[in-house]
Amino acid sequence: MYFFRIALRNLFRRRRRTFVAAGVLAIAIIFFLTLDSFLLGMMEVSFSNMIDFETGHLQVASQDFFAEEEEGELPLAETITHEEEIEQLLTGKEEVRGFTPVLDFSAELIAGREDFPVQVRGIDIDSFSQIFKVDDYIVQGEFISPGDDGIVLGEELAEMLDLEVGDYYTLHFQDDHGSFNVMQGEIRGIVSTPHPDVNQNQVFTDLTRARDSAALEDSQISKILVSLSSRDEAESLTAELKTELGEDFAPHALTARSYREAEEMLEHLEAWVTLENYVILFLILLIGAIGIINIVVLSALERTREIGIMKALGLKESEIVRIFSLEAGGIGIIGGALGCLLGATIVALLAHFGLDLSVIYGEAIDGLGIPMTGRLYGVWNLSSFILIFLFVFLLTVVASLLPSFWAARKDPIDAIYER
After folding, report:
1. d(Cα 240, Cα 319) in Å, to the nearest integer?
2. What's the CA gap between 414 and 419, in Å, rounded?
3. I need a surface site. Which of 8, 31, 128, 393 has the fewest CB within 10 A?
């Protein structure tokens, strides 16, 4: 307690220096917490949009289809015909909340003299609407109904081709035999979702109609999309299904893929977010260490005679080091508390009001390849607050050790007479 009182007195003897150093640490902490909240919010929304509008929590399809899909192709030649057996397998899983079959293939959407490459998704209307939220984002017209010959397409795609509800369309595509087929009808609805890929190049049509137009059998589908009760269960269930599909459907090379595997770019983005945290922590380490070393050295130079008197009175070198370390730790506590308090305020504002991405990126947001548009909201991450506070405190204490030993090793007679 005696050393603590001395350290506290010394800490506030140079208030300006103490609060400048603490302020620098606080600014670094605020930047870290704000960026951490922003990036975690981006990852949260991106994965949620993928699950709610594109992939579900996991998918079941042939290995060849997944391989072609990763290359940007959606071939009708890689369909599967085991819908009932797969659905029976999924029904026995407690984690499974629902599933829906889809038929995905590439096509050219022709409107007047304009044409554009699109991804067509043939859907079972009832089961699809129970898992995905696409029909909640209709901005014109209505969603397709079972047996309908119409389509629903994204708003940006409709604007680019100058299409409206009621206009006629033609889809031109190649079937699994290599023959070119067409689908024609009216546009039933236009959607504007938080997922830019859906808005830019997705076309939804009835599954039965898609099969008939592609000359496929009633049981042929591209894949089954699965919704789970929790996102955390996706990885473990995917691994389990891979084993079971490999055993029960061995000749047909069926496999499962989680939402994380479905979008490799987001996997890389998540790794980048983790790397960003380490980079910022390193910068805080560098800034804090330099600041604390300078402060301890200056403090030791100013208090040379005081150090000599303390040693003459019988204080050991380790006790003098402890005093300087407690002073440095106090700066870390002040800076950490101030940074966490102001950081929490900014994170709270970001979590409540959000941030319009168009303000930061403008129209370039569509070119980032991130499955999100509109407003981004921050995410509270309590572990980041605890980590950064403890990190700054330990940093200041450790950074003070070397200059503290240098100060404590002064000869008491030389120190008293400042020679």
Report:
1. 59
2. 5
3. 8
- Using an 8 Å Cβ cutoff, are 386 and 339 in contact? no
Check: CB of residue 335 under 8 Å from CB of residue 314: no
16 close to 299: Cβ distance less than 8 angstroms = no
Nearest CA among 207, 252, 237 for reference residue 59: 237
Going by DSSP bridges, is the β-strand pair 151-154/223-228 parallel, antiparallel, or unpaired? unpaired
Q: Is residue 241 classed exposed, middle or buried when 0-12, 13-18 and 19+ CB atoms within 10 A define those classes?
A: buried
Taking only the tens place, the pLDDT of each residue in 301-340 is 666 666 666 666 676 777 777 777 787 788 888 888 999 9
Q: Which ranges in 51-138 belong to alpha helices (H)? A: 63-70, 83-91, 125-131
Helix (H, G, I), strand (E, B) or coil at 190: strand
Helical (H) or strand (E) element with 362: none
H/E stretch holding 363: none
Give pTM, 2 decimals.
0.75
Say what the pLDDT of residue 407 is.
Answer: 65
**C-alpha dist (Å) from residue 228 to 55, 93, 122, 220, 244:** 12, 10, 22, 24, 18
Tokens 């490459």: give the residue: 117
